[in-house]
Amino acid sequence: MPAAAMRMRPKARRTPTRRAIIPRTTVAIITTVITITITMTSTAITTITTVIPMLMTPSKLPPSDHPGGMTEAEGAALYRLMTWLSPAFPVGAFSYSSGIEWAVEAGDIADAASLRDWLASLLADGSGFCDGVFLAGAYRAACAHDDATLREVAELAAAFVPSRERQLETSSQGRAFIDIARSAWNCDGLDQIIAQCDGAIVYPVAVGLVSAAHEIPIAPAMHAFFHALTSNWISAGARLIPLGQTDSQRVLAQLEPVVVATARRALQASLDDLGSASFRADLAGMRHETQYTRLFRS
Fold this sequence. Notes:
Blueprint: H1 3-6, H2 24-56, H3 72-84, H4 100-106, H5 112-125, H6 127-143, H7 147-159, H8 164-184, H9 190-197, H10 203-213, H11 218-240, H12 245-254, H13 256-268, H14 279-287
């Protein structure tokens, strides 16, 4: 090999590394930031650690004898009202239309809007309000064991119906309601209260008597009665117009304030406040008797 090739190459000199010089003020700032970050992280961890048990701990339960905030008596009352005033309770309400069938044929009711207006008038200014007054009167007389007033309310309610078919409707449902209540839901004192009426018991009076005998508060009994009454009217209109299920529910929702207001008026009224101004609905009940084609009994 050439001598030049065999000679050792001199070692390369290393360039000395220069240390980064950081000013003392910068170091102080970095130290402060790190300290704050650690402190905030510790606080966050502490907060999360504290919150997690709070989220996982169930809220305080009500006393065992008040499950869901409802007493045993209130639960029983709600159960009975939902049963007695549901479409499944066999009083035959589905076979009556309260004159709505004639109103549909005459063109007074043709759609959801006209059905709503008709029922609003019937509730606030017609048989709806009057039935509510009779229910409240019968309820209070039964609770007070005022037999004379109870008979007066029962007789006046039976005589207050404007047509033969409406008389059949309310008396048949009242009789069925009483018979089923005595057979399946009898209680102490119910037979004695019924015996004091000494005659036909129409539907609102029957609901008032049975609710009083079972010590169900009058306000929920009144609202449940109006809900059942209104739902049955809408069901008849839905079959006659006809209406779909959604439109029927819209009508029921729109009548809610009318039902609530009428129930409040009926609870505050007396027999002296009775009165009806739904003349067209009364005429519909009378003319239905001679209607050529009929699906309903009223």
